[in-house]
Amino acid sequence: MPVQAEPLPSVKIVAPAAAGGGWDSTARALQEAMTKAGQATSVQVVNVPGAGGTIGLAQFANDAKGKGDQLLVGGLVMVGAILTNQAPVDLSAVTPLARVIGEPLVVVVPKDSPLKTMADLEKSLKDDIANTTWAGGSAGGADHILAGLIAKDAGADPAKINYVAFSGGGEALAAMLGGRVTAGISGYGEFEGQIKSGELRALGVSGPERMAGVDVPTLKEQGVEVELINWRGLFAGPDLAAEDKAKLASAVEATVKSPEWAETLKARGWTDYYMPSEEFTAYITSENARITEILKSIGLVN
């Protein structure tokens, strides 16, 4: 795909979540990178929180119809939320434009927790799943899925996990630091400051390998047979003219291949997970089937 010759005059990016979470930080990072990389003259971020992104999705599908200057951030969390909320609008109502980043999740406990390893946490889950509380993002999202998979691996009933969903990363962090929950799950970048300062203890990361420069073992290294990458992507509105779709896709591709974006990935602990529109559309279909199966197994979807 050719690089966008002229910058787009203006772009609106909808983050279907509250400020401070992963989608919001992705939207704002893209806002900065698109402008710096000369792919858009003006980029505005709008937050539309609620119901795991499905409220923002429905609003976007209606408002962005046929418009070549609007983008929606979404990802694994949204796939799960559509299923658990039985949302009337799903991802078939928008245009998959590009998968952009992947983020391994990290399992953390407060610094004073008696739990030192994933084995300790799994024993807690097996012994008393009701009183082993989790803090994470939206119900049915990546954090929730990971908590269920860990419980399943521990031999506990995943349908009985005590999971508290927070709409923004800041609220989950407050619950963790206040000692109101046993453990928390989020993207590493959201808890990095507190892990480095010692306020939170990282027990494990969910990716296939350790993160560069981060001394935290993977779940699999510790005998927990679970692997999960929280991906995020961009969607355009429905009924988009081919020319408008090509311009948007080109601007996004040039942005995510820019030095500015490479710096962003490094700073935030994100992994480049770029996939263009056609492949991304097929990926959404396979991911929907995979997540449906996982959510059924942990009792979140009938």
**What structural class do helix, strand and pairing data support?**
alpha/beta
**Cα end-to-end separation:** 42 Å
Please, what is the average pLDDT? 92
Number of strands: 10
Helix content: 40-55%
Explain what the structure shows.
The chain is of the alpha/beta class and 302 residues long. Helix content is 40%, strand content 24%. Strands 1, 2, 3, 4, 5, 6, 7, 8, 9 and 10 form a ten-stranded mixed β-sheet that branches. Helix 1 (22-36) links the parallel strand 1 and strand 2. Helix 3 crosses helix 10 (277-297) and helix 4 packs across helix 5 (142-154). The radius of gyration is 19 Å and the shape is globular. The termini are far apart. The mean pLDDT is 92.
Outline the fold blueprint.
Layout: E1 8-15, H1 22-36, E2 40-47, H2 54-63, E3 70-75, H3 76-84, E4 95-110, H4 118-127, E5 133-136, H5 142-154, E6 162-165, H6 169-177, E7 183-187, H7 188-197, E8 200-205, E9 229-236, H8 242-256, H9 259-268, E10 271-276, H10 277-297
Parallel strand pairs: 1-2, 1-3, 5-6, 5-7
Antiparallel strand pairs: 3-9, 4-7, 4-8, 4-9, 4-10
Helix pairs in contact: 3-10, 4-5
